[in-house]
Here is the input.
Amino acid sequence: MRAPILNLLLIAMLAGASLAQAQTAPQTAAISPDAIKQREQELEAARARQKSAEEAQAKLKAEITSLGQDRTQLNQQLIDTAANVRAVETKIDEAEARLRTLNGREQAMRTSLDSRRADIVEVLAALQRAGRRTPPALLVRPEDALQSLRTAMLLGAVVPELRTRAEKIAGELGELVALRKSIATERDQLAANRDKVRNDQTRLTALVDERQRQQASREKDLDAENSRAIALSRQVGDLQGLIAKMEQDLQSAAKAAEKAAEAAKQAEAKAAANASAKPGPGAFKDRSRTTPAIAFASAKGLLPLPVNGNKIRDFGGSDGVGGVQKGISLASRPGAQVTTPCDGWVVYAGPFRSYGQLLILNAGGGYHVLIAGMERISVNIGQFVLTGEPVATMGSISQVASILATNASQPVLYVEFRKDGTPIDPGPWWAANEGEKVRG
Here is the structure.
């Protein structure tokens, strides 16, 4: 009976020891010829990857060049690729959350097994000593018979308990092995997703550069306009003053505001003529449009949040510095992709006071959308952007001063909607599937 228990306990000890050694064994082995050969193979693999990346870059460049001046195709590529990036970002967030849970369970199980180590060693030693002892000659000495009987009685009480404990430890070890397999699978998937998002981000960067190159060729005085916008922004102290200053004094922003006003009138007239028809997501499918697909007021329940992340502050709540939150704040992952929540014209793009990098869109009908806290903006003043189009990327920490105190280590995006200069609750505009966890 002792043999199966010994086997179980030996398996437990050996498995526990091997798991511990796998994590604690120092890398002190001298470099061998096999190690040198392995490093050479790794170097060759790195060269192959570099060559593959260069070929992919050349292919991507040729593909973008083939788009030429076809703005519709470029828009389609931009929006689709940005959507892919945000979808993979979500998968990465979910995989990292699952890994944290699995790693926590593994650590708890390892701690439980380690706490039993001394007990297991003691039981193993006792059983091994008992196994080596020669059975007494029962007919020679009565004392030996009595001792044998006592030993049998003791083992009869101890062995079932040992079996139960050994089976429990073996079960935990089996679960630990399964956990480690799950962790390895999750890590492999996470690595694949990170590779994919890097490839998609490379593609997106190339597409954005092409979009801005085409925009620059149409707007010869773009750099001068951007410099003037930043100079004007230093002359005003609040957001409403900034919007008014841009749309009044800056030529490209003024043109954008004028187009927004005209588009709003047309959209309102169209909505009045089709009062019974409720707009849906299909309204945004035309990538060739140069004006908003629908009036902003009619877009309630249709707009996507501009970044993947968690909502940490809502409209009307505390802003963290003794005031009231005039928009929403979304904590994102470092380097996350920012897309436009609506169609509109860019009337400001650049740094502004405590907001970090600030983007202001005129959505028409007296509505403005403000997005702040990015590290880099990739659109210019006067440019018309479509819902879901990539316009910025997040940094590695919060850029908005009012959030630095409590969220200094995490990038945070601030989003504010305004109607005729007054902040309004953006909640009714977000799509129904956009909850506290942004899905993109």
Q: What stands out?
A: The longest strand covers residues 344-351. The CA atoms of residues 69 and 300 lie 33 Å apart. The chain has nine helices and eleven strands.
